């Protein structure tokens, strides 16, 4: 019996085409609540960007696994947090200056970027107003402020070179424009584990929905991993079930298939 369901946001709950949550998914959230199923967000976005969800759906999620599992909280407070090591950031900053790469620095309530490049512009056009362009700021700020996650704008083939300048970190890519960088021992599965422990729910009683590369480990960890029909092929390969696209009622269809609603 499924007692907890975790949802990625972009491309899973929220359509890249309409930038909305389908009505069928909204109804499914309410039906799960009526059945006593706990409903959580599991996203690469930071807490400061969770506010837009309230504009999209009148629903209070039971908790949030954000920044790819680096920060987890619910109405009672924060129950897990992990940040990028400062020593790693000391190594990164000269590399960013040398290469001219754009990189976002994600704090708890503030997200900034070192420089605006075309991939940054392309990303925000794709997100269609569900996130605002980050302000530019001095990346040296990261040496004195807690940074939970980075988002480096570079192609996949350049990830290895970047990580050589970020010891103790790993890449969690969900988008062709950029890759998220998190601590090597972090990730969405860690956030799921901490959440399930907090609520006394077993791993096999959990379900997770995702569509991007940073969802792969989460789908593997959950009792049932569901890939959206619009997911990338590598995500579909690890999923227990592949549902329809987000715009074709994929969330509701999968929940009905497994008898969750």
TrEMBL record:
Q: Do the record's keywords include Hydrolase?
A: yes
Query: What molecular function terms (GO) are annotated for this protein?
Result: hydrolase activity
Any idea which UniProt keywords this protein has?
Hydrolase
Q: What is this protein called?
A: Cof-type HAD-IIB family hydrolase
PANTHER family named in the record:
PHOSPHATASE YKRA-RELATED, PHOSPHOSERINE PHOSPHATASE
């Amino acid at each position: 019996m499924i007692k907890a369901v975790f949802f990625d946001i972009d491309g899973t709950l929220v359509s890249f085409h309409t930038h909305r949550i389908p009505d069928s998914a909204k109804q499914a959230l309410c039906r799960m609540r009526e059945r006593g199923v706990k409903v959580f967000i599991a996203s690469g976005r930071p807490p400061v960007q969770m506010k837009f969800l309230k504009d999209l759906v009148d629903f209070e999620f039971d908790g949030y696994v954000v920044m790819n599992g680096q920060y987890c909280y619910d109405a009672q407070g924060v129950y897990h947090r992990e940040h990028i090591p400062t020593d790693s950031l000391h190594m990164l900053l000269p590399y960013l200056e040398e290469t001219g790469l754009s990189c976002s620095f994600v704090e708890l309530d503030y997200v900034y970027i070192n420089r605006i490049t075309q991939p940054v512009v392309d990303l925000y056009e794709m997100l269609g107003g569900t996130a605002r362009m980050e302000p530019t700021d001095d990346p040296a700020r990261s040496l004195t402020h807690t940074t939970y996650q980075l988002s480096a704008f570079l192609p996949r083939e350049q990830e290895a070179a970047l990580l050589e300048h970020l010891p103790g970190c790993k890449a969690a890519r969900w988008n062709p424009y950029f890759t998220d960088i998190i601590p090597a021992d972090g990730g969405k599965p860690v956030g799921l584990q901490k959440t399930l422990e907090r609520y006394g729910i077993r791993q096999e009683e959990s379900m997770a929905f995702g569509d991007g590369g940073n969802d792969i480990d989460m789908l593997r960890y959950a009792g049932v991993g569901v890939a959206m029909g619009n997911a990338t092929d590598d995500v579909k390969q690890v999923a227990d079930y592949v549902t329809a696209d987000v715009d074709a009622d994929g969330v509701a269809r999968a929940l009905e298939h497994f008898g969750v609603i």
